[in-house]
Specification:
This protein has 197 residues and is an all-alpha fold. The chain is built from eight helices and no strands. Helix 3 packs parallel to helix 5 (121-132) and helix 4 runs parallel beside helix 8 (158-185). The termini are far apart.
């Protein structure tokens, strides 16, 4: 009776099986699709930061001094007196021109006051408005007449006064909230991206 010999398959005749590390598509991913890890371009695109607007870049280039409460008040008063004098010389004491110039002065004063004296910004601004309105008040008859003219001008143009005070108050409040949020977050870890040299 003829016996069949069992022959072990040679090296070249071994069944081809896929190795554990072969490029098989994961479950739920179609074959041939590119699979990337978390550091790949698919995940990296979601972590990209948005470009900074040009207006913000222009504001960052502006000087940013830190004035004390007294310094901010003196700065605003002196600047408004100069602007009031120029308004009297160039525009015959126009209240509208003076009021429009008062708004950016209020904003700059609130931006340049140091964080410890933010509460003084809405207080200094109305005083500066009263100081700067003296040249355009048009009072006659000595000190009493000039004082009455200033009080009358403040009453007639209180809208500009309130608007500038509101601008300074809003800016000071926003700065205060941002400062408090930074304090709550605490300092960044030395090992983080910002702490590396």
């Amino acid at each position: 009776m003829e016996q069949y010999r069992t022959r072990t398959p040679q090296h070249g005749q071994r069944a081809r099986t896929s190795a554990p590390g072969s490029s098989r598509a994961p479950i739920g991913v179609p074959a041939g699709a590119a699979v990337t890890d978390e550091n790949g371009p698919v995940y990296g695109a979601a972590g990209r930061t948005r470009p900074v607007p040009p207006i913000v870049l222009a504001l960052r280039r502006l000087p940013s001094p830190r004035l004390t409460g007294l310094g901010g008040g003196l700065f605003a008063a002196a600047l408004m007196f100069v602007l009031g004098t120029l308004d009297w010389v160039l525009f015959d004491g126009s209240p509208a021109v003076y009021g429009v110039l008062f708004l950016p002065v209020s904003a700059v004063t609130a931006l340049w006051v140091r964080p410890a004296d933010l509460v003084t910004a809405p207080i200094c601004v109305p005083i500066a408005f009263a100081v700067g309105i003296v040249p355009i008040a048009g009072g006659v008859g000595g000190f009493a007449g000039q004082a009455m003219a200033v009080v009358t001008a403040l009453a007639l143009h209180a809208g500009w006064l309130y608007a500038g005070t509101l601008v300074a108050g809003v800016i000071a409040t926003v700065r205060r909230i941002r400062m408090m949020s930074r304090r709550r977050r605490g300092p960044k870890k030395p090992g983080g991206p910002a702490g590396r040299l």
